[in-house]
Amino acid sequence: MSAFKEFSKGIYAENPVFKQALGLCPTLAVSNSVENGLGMGLAATFVLVCSNVIISLIRKSVPPKIRIPIYIVVIATFVTMIDLSMAGFFPALHKSLGIFVPLIVVNCIILGRAEAYAGKNNAGLSFLDGLGMGIGFTLALMLLGVIRELLGNGSLFGLPMLGAHFEPVLIMILPPGAFLTIGFVLGFFNWLENRRQNN
Amino acid sequence: MKDILKLSSILMLITTIAATALAAVYSVTKPRIELKKQEALNAAKSVALPGADLNAIYDVKGNDKVLYYSGYMDTTKSNLVGYAFLTSGRGYSSDIESIVGVDSTGNIIGIQVLSQTETPGLGTRIEEIRYGESLTWVQKQFIGKSAKNLAVDKDGGEIQSITGATISSRAVTNSIVAGYEDLLKQLKETN
Description:
The complex is a heterodimer of chains A (199) and B (191). Chain A is mainly α and 199 residues long. Chain A is 70% helix and 2% strand. Chain A has nine helices and two strands; from the N terminus they run ααααααααββα. Chain A has helices at 3-8, 24-30, 34-58, 67-89, 91-97, 101-105, 108-118, 123-153, 175-198; strands at residues 155-156, 159-160. In chain A, strands 1-2 form a two-stranded antiparallel sheet. In chain A, a hairpin with a 2-residue loop joins β1 (155-156) and β2 (159-160). In chain A, α3 (34-58) packs antiparallel against α8, α7 packs antiparallel against α8 (123-153) and α8 (123-153) packs across α9. Chain B is an alpha+beta fold. Chain B has one domain. Chain B is 41% helix and 21% strand. Chain B contains three helices and five strands; from the N terminus they run αβββββαα. Chain B has helices spanning 2-48, 137-142, 166-190, and strands at residues 57-62, 65-72, 80-90, 95-102, 108-115. The longest helix of chain B has 47 residues, at 2-48. Chain B is globular. Chain B starts with a helix and ends with a helix. Classes of the chains: A mainly alpha (199), B alpha+beta (191). At the A-B interface, α3, α4 and β2 of A face α1 of B.
């Protein structure tokens, strides 16, 4: 597979949310506005790229039997270090992204990519894989965010879009709206895939 | 048996390296984080006590701990603006810490949330400014009200809780009531 394909597969063909159904917990939790989706996506992309590179670099010295606990230790350490450094050196960034950091620790995309990809490939390819998956995750969160914020709040990025007469469907920005939206979006992507295969 | 020893020593080595790295980052960043916190607190004091001169906001201490802050119009200490206190309450996923300023009759004159990690988009709206408005939720709800008998609408009060974030709204509301009661006690003791 070409290097470009390693990067681009995460965006659509193997999109972590829509195709692999990974990381649904943070996806459901923070996709209630476009801005939150973007913030969570960027923070997760950063951690994903860094953890993929590190896991890839140490993959040869990790005994297969205990690779999962080692990956978890590496990722958790890394996330905490990023959190502390952001708070100390970039307080403005920490104020907007810091809220997502505790959610990243439980994001199974990161462990999933470590296990499925970074543990078997070199650092360069793992970097591209992490970047592609991260961007795919970000786009998925933003797509859900657009639907939910538009219907549930009548706005995008906090700016009113649908005029004063629009009555927001509040349930869309509450947890049930997350399940409804992801159900329809997943269904849509499966329908597209089926149609493509039948042709 | 040999395998177990080997694997566990590798795991121990890695956790030791991770712990050392964490300790190093922690010790470098801790003083900086404290400094930023102090700067943020100083800024928040003037938000909580609008009209008070920055140099005329004094820490009132008891047993080496800051009990509350008293703010005056100027350093002559002749015109009291009000008192500010720190308070925190357990929200949905974090402790919500805020600073609240009250005048001498107990009316809230300023408030700011200092730290919280509630659910983004729901609980975090306590300190967000909605489009077309100029105040955060806490400022809009609390400024001008007496700090004595506050309660959210679901508890029969007049504070409009945020849809989908009743727990966060209630935590802030109840922490103000509790903090104000403490302030009254401390005012009696220190004066």
